Amino acid sequence: MLEIAESPAAGARREVLEETGIEVEVQRLTGVYKNMARGIVALVFRCAPVGGSERTSDESVAVSWMAPEEVTAAMTEAYAVRLLDALSDDAPHVRIHDGRRLIPA
Questions:
Q1: Which sequence spans correspond to the domains of the chain?
Q2: Beta strands at 93-97 and 40-52: parallel, antiparallel or unpaired
Q3: Whole-angstrom Cα distance, residue 46 to residue 31?
Q4: What gap in Å lies between CA 17 and CA 26, rounded to an integer?
Q5: Measuring CA to CA, how many Å separate 89 from each of 29, 30, 32, 34?
Q6: Residue 95 backbone class (left: φ over 0; alpha: ψ -120 to 50; beta: rest)
Q7: How far is CA 84 from the centre of its chain?
Q8: What's the rounded Cα separation, in Å, for the pair 81 and 19?
Q9: pLDDT, tens digit (0-9, with 9 covering 90-100), for 34-73
Q10: Which of 47, 53, 77, 83 has a Cα at 20 to 30 A from 71?
């Protein structure tokens, strides 16, 4: 969640640091994802690590680096697609899901 006076890029940097211990440079918006069941809209950015060290937090149970082919096996479709979209060079994606699976447009 963004703080009141916080830009989306600043919020992404803060959240990644808080949840993973990694400092990042925000590169670009890669997608907008709406969880239709909960009414939550998430903005996802491609970032590059610039410092820090991996650690878990109250909001994360693991921090790991994965190859693209490992992502779909490690998480539900609704979340795996965010990472795969961030790795693509396509324009930002806009997708909807039910919390687990994508909902066709």
A1: 8-103
A2: unpaired
A3: 9
A4: 12
A5: 11, 9, 15, 21
A6: beta
A7: 10
A8: 20
A9: 999 999 999 999 999 999 999 999 999 999 999 999 999 9
A10: 53
pLDDT at 1: 87
Identity of the residue numbered 60: S
The pTM (predicted TM-score) of the whole model is 0.90
Looking at this protein, which amino acid is placed at residue 5? A
CATH architecture of 8-103: Alpha-Beta Complex (3.90)
Residue in the structure block whose two tokens are 């693991």: 62
Which three-class secondary structure string do you get for 15-50?
HHHHHHCEEEEEEEEEEEEEECCCCEEEEEEEEEEE
